[in-house]
Amino acid sequence: MIPNGYLMFEDENFIESSVAKLNALRKSGQFCDVRLQVCGHEMLAHRAVLACCSPYLFEIFNSDSDSHGISHVKFDDLNPEAVEVLLNYAYTAQLKADKELVKDVYSAAKKLKMERVKQVCGDYLLSKMDVQSCISYRNFASCMGDSRLLNKIDGYIQEHLLQISEQEEFLKLPRLKLEVMLEDNVGLPSNGKLYTKVINWVQRSIWENGDSLEDLMEEVY
């Protein structure tokens, strides 16, 4: 209950207007107190804004002995375009990236511990996945250590295993785990094709990678 004579006003445009002005200040380099060096590219920003969006940068800024000076953070393993996408997101809450850049944005978000962005990028990749790209996506998810993404991709691979086994990338898998389930509506010819693909994979791993048959059999069941 608001007491008599109490003034209360909420400016619905204030947040949107302030965010837009902050981003304009960033782009013009005004009042910026952090410099990001990304593979030779310099990007200016405001420490408080980045600290709110990135737990990784918050930890760096929080441990900075000169909290009133300009912070310098260097990244040699991130795509500058992807980092720029994340900077725009930090200032506008809008994530915009070309489809070719999504994996790099994911990698940058992982580095900066921006979990929401990482999840959105992962879901986007899943929405674009098909039998031609799923193995490549699985390799990416494995490199990123994303168990959620891996489980979803593995489910897709299991559902489309026969079609995927026709792809050249199937034989290049570093490891393989198969569950071959014979159901009443699954004919032996289809499974015969699948068994042939497994044998081809085993042969390739032995001849080209020097793997032992005993080790490979632990991966195929």
From TrEMBL:
Keywords: Kelch repeat, Repeat
Domain BTB: 32-99
Gene3D superfamilies per UniProt: 1.25.40.420, Potassium Channel Kv1.1, Chain A
Cross-referenced Pfam families: BACK, BTB
Entries under PANTHER family matching the protein: INFLUENZA VIRUS NS1A-BINDING PROTEIN, KELCH PROTEIN
Name recorded for this polypeptide: BTB domain-containing protein
Organism this protein belongs to: Calidris pygmaea
